Amino acid sequence: MSAPARRPIRRLERGTVHRIAAGEVVERPASVVKELIENAFDAGASHVAVRIEEGGLRRIEVADDGCGIPPEELGLALERHATSKIGPSDPIERIASLGFRGEALASIATVSRLRLTSRTPDREEASGIATAGGEQPLRFEEGRSVGTTVEVADLFYNTPARRKFLHAPAVEQLEVLRAVEHLYVARPSVALRLTADGREIAGFPASEDLREATAHVLGAEMLDQSFVVEAELPGLGRIRGVLGRPNLATGSPRRFYLSVNGRTIESRAIAQAIRAAYLQYIPRTRFPIGALHLAVPLDRVDVNVHPTKREVRFARETELVEAVRIAVRRALLDCPGLARVPEIAATVRRFSPEESLEEGFSTRSESPLGPWPARTAPLGSRSVGPGAAGQRRLFERPDAPTLEARPGLPAISLLGVLDALYWVGTTPTGFVLIDQHAASERLLFEVLVADGHLARQVLVDPLTISLTPAQRAAWEVHRSTVADAGFDVEPFGGDRVRVLSVPAYRGHRARAESVRELLEELSTGTRPTQPDGMVERVAATIACHAAIRAGDAIPPDELARVLDALYERASAVYSCPHGRPILFDLPRSRIDRWFLRAGP
């Protein structure tokens, strides 16, 4: 094969250069909204209104009541690397404003049809400039109150290769809402309003109370189910925040909001430090929710490491991250009424040949956990001699519900239940412990994935609940998914909806309130411990809430039916759809080692 012919090195055309540079700043409509709102913050705005059409693909408008731009500077505002945020000799190592590169407006103008209108306090009317693709700007005058409006139409109209990688308008709308939420939590003193296709979908009032601000975004539970973090970080800065108690932890990391010096950012190291602070209080598959504001000396943080300023670099980062973890941990431990790791005070129940299965597993005669009481009736054959290997069954009883052995799975006879949650059973080689909720959850997950739905139970008294803006937006986008899952939901004014029916399976139904968690799942994306597909995500969430719950008193033949159904799908026995184990095997040989005995 001949060598390819050499191609000469050439300068790229100016328009190509600008479109490539724009792609680093403008990724999607949410990127445009973020940059324009940050400009409004820098302009001293107290109110910002965002309007989008078709998820921002057709039109974006951001209007503020800030200081405005003088008419003689409008042309410069659209030029690359022209900015009012830093002076000619100001060090870029000490950036106090949100914008400073002078790239945002120029990049947006390069890939859209942009119209900018602005009025300063000393003028009677507003001046404007319009451009398509960054070329041939036109000037105009019109009426407007003090402040600035930027209109962006037909985003990526001149770069179709970029536009085709965007998602559907409904998905882009959710991303815009997330961007607005992050910006509001970082600067709650500025009121933000988002309108989509002529309908207001989120309104965040100005607030000096961070707890109140997080409640507007994360839900009213933050008002009384959260704790305050406030501490000096000697030599490193200061931390202030509001975090949810462990019971509010969610399956997605996207409900934690971090800002540095008023700038919303992402930091994996700090996010991991927050999770470490919750160690022993939330499962490894759950994530804290809330907001943290870091105030760091300007020369200790580099905001110039990412074109969109989404990531920053800290000086002495290891020390800062550890100081944040310690501050959060201390605040968590000092939180009044915190549910600490409890002492085990379990109860156990067993059934006997003299009792019916239903009676044996009622909650009427539970006794404290301890040795099995002496019995007058024999428990059954219990040969432990070496010659009985392969024929022995521990605590074998004819009345115990038994699962037949399957390839790779042992036969199980159920003995009793611990705290109406953990069942004890025997196998030919030892014991098993079974989580009744995890087993039921996995079965429902398999049914949902296979059949697409559960039964629907109509509520005699429909329940009215309030949704956060993100949950409301997710419902608007995924109404058919929510309905297919078994929830009939109708609007009930403002942020409230009414739940008319819920999914159910063999007498166990989901709580009406759990529709919030389904919407949260749909709005924030997949959990790291479950499949990425929409079907699996919805099925896992619905199964969790329609399954047999911890504390439900169920007869042993009901659990045997659940386990038997799982035995039909051998791979389903190992864990629930969220990764928690269903069954632990405890061989007799291990028990012998605990008691320093030789094997049988």
Question: Could you give a quick summary of the protein structure above?
Answer:
With 600 residues, the protein is of the alpha+beta class.
Provide an overview of this structure:
The protein is built from 17 helices and 26 strands. With 600 residues, the protein is an alpha+beta fold. It has three domains: 14-85 and 99-204, Histidine kinase-like ATPase, C-terminal domain (Heat Shock Protein 90, 2-Layer Sandwich); 210-333, Ribosomal Protein S5, domain 2; 345-362 and 390-600, Ribosomal Protein S8, Chain: A, domain 1. A hairpin with a 2-residue loop joins strand 7 (191-196) and strand 8 (199-204). Helix 1 (14-25) packs across helix 4 (104-110) and helix 14 runs antiparallel to helix 15 (534-546).
Element layout with pairings:
Elements: H1 14-25, H2 29-42, E1 47-53, E2 59-64, H3 74-77, H4 104-110, E3 113-119, E4 126-132, E5 135-142, E6 147-153, H5 160-163, H6 169-186, E7 191-196, E8 199-204, H7 210-218, E9 226-233, E10 237-244, E11 256-260, E12 263-265, H8 268-277, E13 290-295, E14 301-302, E15 313-314, H9 317-333, E16 347-350, H10 357-360, E17 367-368, E18 402-403, E19 412-418, E20 422-427, E21 430-435, H11 436-451, E22 455-466, H12 469-477, H13 479-484, E23 488-491, E24 496-505, E25 508-509, H14 515-524, H15 534-546, H16 556-567, E26 583-587, H17 588-594
Parallel strand pairs: 1-7, 11-13
Antiparallel strand pairs: 1-2, 2-6, 3-4, 3-6, 4-5, 7-8, 9-10, 10-13, 11-12, 14-15, 16-17, 16-19, 18-19, 19-20, 20-21, 21-26, 22-24, 23-24, 24-25
Helix pairs in contact: 1-4, 2-6, 6-12, 8-9, 11-15, 11-16, 12-14, 14-15
